[in-house]
Amino acid sequence: MGIHGGDSVKNKAVFLDRDGVLNQAVVRNGKPYPPANAPELVLTPNAKEALQELKAQGFLLLVVTNQPDVAKGITTRAAVEEINRKLASELPVDDVFVCYHKDGDGCDCRKPKPGMILDGARKHNVDLAESFMVGDRWRDVEAGQNAGCRTVFIDGGYEERQPARPADARVLSLKEAAKWILLASRKGVAQ
Fold this sequence. Notes:
The structure is a single chain. About 30% of the residues lie in helices and about 20% in strands. By secondary structure, it is an alpha/beta fold. Strands 7-6-3-8-9-10 form a 6-stranded parallel beta sheet, sandwiched between helices. Strands 1-2 form a two-stranded antiparallel ribbon. Strands 4-5 form a two-stranded antiparallel sheet. Helix 2 (about 75-90) links the parallel strand 6 (about 60-65) and strand 7 (about 95-100). Helix 1 (about 45-55) packs parallel to helix 5. It starts with a strand and ends with a helix.
């Protein structure tokens, strides 16, 4: 980190949901689910190229993912960690933050609460106003809004509620999300 004019220079980041954004969600009855294990992990089309473009423009890439199936006893923490390791070995992500709680647990990390984003911002010295949250569910968009990030909603066509307040951008793929972020961040340079 450099020092500029006496103030510490902050990083800009793209916070990314995992399932349905970086890897394909398993959709059953119109609702997305995570892969059950690492061998089931399939990256979304152009995920690596999209992330490399963001990385080339100086963005930190931080994954923030709800994994309530651990609290529900459907999967294990070890299985989720194995999926995250495989994902991190295939994509240029800088860190992964996981909430293992379910809705009723009252934690600060489960999206739409901004806890994981705030933790990532503290750990990596991130300027949230210069950062983005990319997700495919209302919880992701609202978590980004609650943290003070600009938000990008990847519309997977799921049969579930939409974000209460629209995202800054609505796209159909991670590649489109990256393209929008790069354009939006260039416009934001001249303040």
